[in-house]
Amino acid sequence: MRKKSNAITSTAFLAQLDQNLRQLLSTVQTELAPLELAQLNHKPAPTAWSILECLEHLNRYSRYYNPRFAQALAHARPSAEAEVRYSWVGRKFIEMIAPTNPKKAKAFGYMNPSGSQLDRETLTEFCAHQQQLLALLAQARHTDLNRKAVPVEFLKLLKLRLGETFELQVLHEQRHVQQALRVKAGLSDANRPETTDAAPSLLVASL
Description:
This protein is mostly helical. It is built from eight helices and two strands; from the N terminus they run H-H-H-H-H-E-E-H-H-H. The longest helix has 24 residues, at 51-74. It is globular.
């Protein structure tokens, strides 16, 4: 994502989010979807999330935010090209959720999928949510992105601007897809058979 200090118009802003979202969807389809179900459900540690749990976490947020985006757009008035602006709270949320922020944030209980029974339907649902979000971004063209129109999931009395909430959603998804990719990267180590010092020659011969 871009630096918040740089001004950006609504058209360029939506185009950037669209590009980032398409890249994220392609990554999930090419890097994660081909994995076996056992790999998708592998947990690198007892308290860590599996790949499917990362995606289910995002699905739970999409179930809330995609309908709120649609509702906000249904009541939006046409607007001319304008610079996208951020509320103070929106900036803080974006800094917190950005994939470049190494600090972990604890998920609310009902958004924590740990221990859920998940299958490939989780992947299917995730991809469907992304297609919905792409359609919503397209619908948001010529819309006032600076209007406070989207209630925050955990504090519905607080509304964020439409544009900054779109960005928050994409950043959140990037963050957890990166987490899922790290789980995938560790699969080769997790599935590697244990070796002993009893037969070192076999290791050399297999290289």
